[in-house]
Amino acid sequence: MISNPKKVCIVGYGSIGKRHHQILQDILDPETEFTICDLNFGANVDEVCHKTFDIVLVCTDTITHVDIALKFKKVNNILFIEKPISFSYEDAVRLEGHPSRDKIHVGCNIRFTPFYEKIKAVSKEVRTGSVVSMSHLPTWRPGTDHLKSYSANVSLGGGVLLDFIHEPDYVASIFGLPKSSMISSRKVFDNLTVDSPDTCAIIWEYENKTMVFNLCYGAKEYVRSFTYVTDDGKRETIEIDLAEFRTGYRPQWEHILEQGPVNGYNECIGLLKILELQ
Question: At what angle do helices 15-27 and 249-259 cross, to 10 degrees?
Fold first, then answer.
């Protein structure tokens, strides 16, 4: 168990940074000191990164994750990076020599939901799986122009595969990495993004099973599901709605505070490589 963290730094205070802050305020000692760094308010990251913190959270645009993590050399317990660890394998491997590399945890809240446990429970029966994640990018951040978001812009580390990396992550954590992978990631819709891919199809082949992914920014109906077929022909769909998806944030923190990082550097590097994010 991590012993009573007292100093926490959160870099990036958008919706996800605020969510993590609220959870940690509920879990940690009331006297825990929080340092907030954001472009619009709070401390300047370059003025505080030399300090020692028990926990550092990187909740900024994907394109900046590695640069910010590299600034913080003195992390006692957890270097938490919101998913994905980076926009590319080449960029992520810059963390190889980070003094806190073994303390890195990359956000994977879907692993801490009933949805995930249901898939784990049937994993040995699965012969083919259809993994779907679709929602509507323009409605993600009310009151903002979605075309200015990182999701819509390649230069900010956007794209549907990076945003929906939860799906390859949970499949890889349950079934392992595939023997081969085929990927088509492209911009299909006219007005969903500036230049980032809005649709992605992936086929993962294992020795005795196949997984097919369908990821899309364009669906006005939120859909997240895993449909599988077994040797005896049984077909079943397991679904997770947005409310259940969000329930995974708190148990994720409870777990890593108790047992340490789960989704670490090596695991994330392997996933980026198989996804050809190089």
Answer: 50
